[in-house]
Amino acid sequence: MTEVVLDSSAVLAFLNDEAGRDRVADVLGVALVSAVNHAEVLEKLVERGRSIEDAAMVTDTLAYEIAEVDVVQAFRAAALKAPTRHRGLSLGDRFCLALAQETNLPVLTADRAWLDLDLDIEVTLIR
User: Fold this and answer.
1) Average confidence score pLDDT of the chain
2) Do the beta carbons of residue 83 and residue 119 sit within 8 Å?
3) Where along the chain do its domains lie?
4) 23, 37, 71, 125: which has the highest count of C-beta atoms within 10 A?
């Protein structure tokens, strides 16, 4: 049963053995990640020197479920632009939040900027 949506910052904290890693490890088996955020994780691994094949092998070992992106999520992510503009959230951030809205699940992130968002989404920091 899925219990939480993971932001790419949380997944990367886990992979990079950063503070908050244990909080992410505790939920990997019951977590959902947007395909957009999964792409962000792959991109960061490649930027740090891994091949795309190696990055895919690394992420394949993670037990989270990847949520496909659809038109409804695209609409929700676009609609989140105005209420999140003051915190400078990226499109990937907004897709994560859109998935949380759609599933009514809390989000786990390392991004402190999300704490003062006036949205009906439960946001928890990993550190």
Assistant:
1) 97
2) yes
3) 4-125
4) 37
Torsion 36-42-47-51 (CA) sign: negative
In tens, the pLDDT along 40-71 reads 999 999 999 999 999 999 999 999 999 999 99
Q: pTM score, two decimals? A: 0.95
Place of tokens 């895919």: 56
DSSP line for 29-43: GGEEEEHHHHHHHHH
Q: Which residues contact 20 (CB under 8 A, 6 or more apart)?
A: 10, 13, 14, 110, 125, 126, 127
Per-residue pLDDT of 72-86, as tens digits, reads 999 999 999 999 999
Taking a C-beta distance cutoff of 8 angstroms, is the pair 38, 65 a contact? no
Give the separation between CA 113 and CA 37, rounded to whole angstroms.
17
